[in-house]
Amino acid sequence: MTSACTVCRLHAESTFRIEGMDCHEEVVALERRFRNLPGLEDFAADVMGQRLHVKYDAARLTTSAIADAVGGLGMRAWLEHEEPIGIDRRPERLRQSLVWASGAAIAAGLALEWTGGPPSIARVLFVAAVAAGAPITAWRALHAVRSRALDINVLMLAAATGAALLGQWAEAAAVVFLFGVAHTLETRTLERARLAIGALLDLTPAEALVRGAGGDRRVGIDQVAIGDLIVVRPGEKVPLDGRVVAGSSSVNQAPITGESMPVDKAAGDEVFAGTVNGHGALDVEVTRRRRDTTLARIIHLVERAQAQRAPAQALVERFARVYTPAMLALALAVALAPPLVAGAAWPTWIYRALVLLVISCPCALVISTPVSIVAALAGAARKGVLIKGGVYLERTGEVRCVAFDKTGTLTRGTPELVDIVPLDGAAPEAIVAMAAAIETRSTHPIARAILKHASAASIPPARGERVTSFGGLGAEGLVDGAPVLLGNHRLFEERKLCSPRVHDALDRIGARGLTPVLVARDGVTLGVIAVADRARASGRDAIDLLRRQGVEAIVMLTGDNARAAKTIADELGVDEVRAELLPQDKQAVVQELRGRFGAVAMVGDGVNDAPALATADVGIAMGVAGSDAALETADIALMADELLKLPYAFRLSRKTVRNIKANLTISLVMKAAFVAAAIMGVATLWMAVLADTGASVVVIANALRLIRAD
Ligand code: ADP
Ligand code: MG
What we know:
Layout: E1 11-19, H1 24-35, E2 40-46, E3 51-57, H2 63-71, E4 76-79, H3 90-114, H4 119-146, H5 152-165, H6 169-199, E5 207-212, E6 215-220, E7 229-232, E8 242-246, E9 249-252, H7 254-257, E10 263-265, E11 270-271, E12 276-277, E13 282-286, H8 294-307, H9 311-342, H10 346-358, H11 363-382, E14 385-387, H12 390-396, E15 401-405, H13 406-410, E16 416-422, H14 428-439, H15 445-456, E17 464-470, E18 474-479, E19 482-487, H16 489-494, H17 500-511, E20 515-521, E21 524-532, H18 539-548, E22 553-557, H19 562-572, E23 576-578, H20 583-597, E24 600-604, H21 610-615, E25 618-622, H22 628-633, E26 636-638, H23 645-680, H24 685-704
Parallel strand pairs: 15-22, 15-24, 22-23, 24-25, 25-26
Antiparallel strand pairs: 1-3, 1-4, 2-3, 5-6, 5-7, 7-13, 8-11, 8-13, 9-10, 9-12, 14-26, 16-21, 17-18, 18-19, 19-20, 20-21
Helix pairs in contact: 3-4, 3-6, 4-5, 4-6, 5-6, 5-10, 6-24, 8-11, 9-10, 9-11, 10-23, 10-24, 11-23, 11-24, 12-23, 14-15, 18-23, 23-24
This protein binds adenosine-5'-diphosphate (ADP) and magnesium ion.
Adenosine-5'-diphosphate is lined by residues 405-407, 439, 442, 444, 446-447, 469, 472-475, 486-488, 515, 517, 558-560, 608.
């Protein structure tokens, strides 16, 4: 494709809903079909969501051509945002009634056999049962064969045909009927799974109450514009993201953040679509349209995550690719070898080979992994933990070392000003006024502490101009025309603004475990402001729980000074502290930890710590509701500012890995048992069909438990 002009290609992406994509086999068929579809660049199939994400060159391929290609495989495709033109339920109903007719014929046949009725009539009934049940399977098998796939329909048809040729009409009928029932059961189970998972994320009301000149009126939320004023009455769901302009209430944000406690909201606060208003009415100015709300983003990200293949899934699929051919080869050997080599009876061994055919479909095996992962991802999203794909779920289970950013992650991120140490007789108020002038331009937690103190003590901030901030160090600007610098010790050493008296003050502040903020004007250090941030209440528990999950080392990374960091670290039981780091140093430390411990998770706020988060094997951002950048960059995003979500994520990841293993064991043991039983001649065809379906259903049910895992 290198010869094609990359500029004039029209890259496009579309998402289709696919009806009839229920198993891995359909995905394999799609893969095969798409390989010779010119212009198709990439695709990801999500069997659970019945969705297909396609990347293509719109100059060479249209969405309707893609839909046609899918249609040619016996499935139906339509663009996600377009409703299908009336789903036709008739084929499904016809299929159902044919299956039941076939069942009735079998029952009649069996009854006749048992009561000693004429065998010829019983046989006619069995033949009728096959005739009723087989056409649909045959039709599907035809599609599969046309796309050169050996799917379950082909295998079942082969088994039934074989049984009929052996004169075992009752068996042939049983295979056809039970397979029909099995198919229905499996489709229903998957559909229930889809509903359970989809329901978790479908949370916004369809209308909003918009305040206008002519009074309040209900408007579809698609018609609401940014800047519109909406009213959220007590007990109602917030329809769109916005900012509160009047009223106060407590809002249950659990649907977005998973927080158990309602959050107080008053003028100026952000509210999110999908959350539930408490006792007070709120006037909200809409800040985001429906497609951009935090909830919409979450849903989008979860869907994207669910469409990705986790490593375990890829492994199982690779296994499935050799499993089916291997079983077919075995079946052939079983049919041919004993009669040819040892002169055994042909019908006996052909029958045994047919049983092997039935169990050579890897569906239970292949469906189990994606169902586990999709269920886990959906359950986590509901608890405010957004995991960007099965990969991270699997990787989190391997993490041995967790690195935490200090400020705002292990601490509350709302430091308070506790002391002002003037040097050379400067007035404390003047120091605060100068600092506040610079900090009005900053969003750092320390800046907020200083501004809060200034306003509480009614110190009018001076006017700051041309402020530049130095990440991890401090900031600088002009106050009333004079250059003012503020920040940590490292910054002041670099600028050669330290003196024995400065060091003396720093020592005293450091000894108290406080964070010093030095302030200088015109190249003279005027004083030190001491701020203190408190450890989060849940920090200790979260760290203890992480250790119980098998995490060996907890490391704190911070730009703050070593002593203040140590005070917090000791309180929380952190093993190792790395202080006075610049943002890029944090990245280097994460790299070093990976060398020492293998998989490392980094927990930070996702904005300042983005490089370190990206370097870690699993980057976890905390408190990201409302911050799109953090939501996008993290591998795992905790919507709420709640440390205890962290051990939950680790627990879930281990549970998911265990769940997948259990499911694989169930299906593999079942298959192995049937291989043995088939060769020994104790398994019948109908037992094999039942066991195969049973395994699928058990495995799906087991996987779905992950939705409610906590
Ligand atoms: P952390 O690694 O703990 O999240 P940062 O990297 O954000 O901290 O900042 C490291 C240090 O840099 C702070 O402890 C503080 O001393 C100094 N600093 C950074 N920005 C500012 C600011 N705006 N005002 C005062 N000090 C600052
Ligand atoms: Mg920070």
